[in-house]
């Protein structure tokens, strides 16, 4: 499983880069066409919106995996270790509940979107809603795994307010040049 993660991360990064490229091309060409030729591509907005939704959801998955989501750790860092762990357990349980709601809601929207189509291109709106479905389905096991690590006091557990584990610190430590 550990060998599968880096190629998946790379694939997600490439998909995000592709989505960004398509967005820039669609919106940029539409701007030029409108201001220079007084015309435009009606589908550009739909394509850009679809790419934006997927880019955001894929980025959220990567951010969670890398521990890069924004958080309020200042308060938690001042707590004793046992309270930090308890706070992390409660917050992870709440996150799992929220992700479950997100998964169920995204599933419902994806099913509804199978019979609803975009205005210009006519693609099923399920393509839009399925971004949330993929995001929630990917984040649920990641949060559950970290919760398990916190409960079992595994050294790789990420607890807000604590310094990253040694193997993470080496990856994120800034280089010092003299």
Automatic annotation (TrEMBL):
Residues 23-151 form the Tripartite ATP-independent periplasmic transporters DctQ component domain. Keywords: Cell inner membrane, Cell membrane, Membrane, Transmembrane, Transmembrane helix, Transport. The chain crosses the membrane at residues 12-35, 47-65, 86-107, 127-148. It comes from the Bacteria. It holds the Pfam family DctQ. Its main location: membrane. The keyword Cell inner membrane applies. It is found in: Cell inner membrane. It is a multi-pass membrane protein. The complex comprises the extracytoplasmic solute receptor protein and the two transmembrane proteins. Belongs to the TRAP transporter small permease family. Part of the tripartite ATP-independent periplasmic (TRAP) transport system. This is TRAP transporter small permease protein. It comes from Uliginosibacterium flavum. The lineage of its organism: Bacteria, Pseudomonadati, Pseudomonadota, Betaproteobacteria, Rhodocyclales.
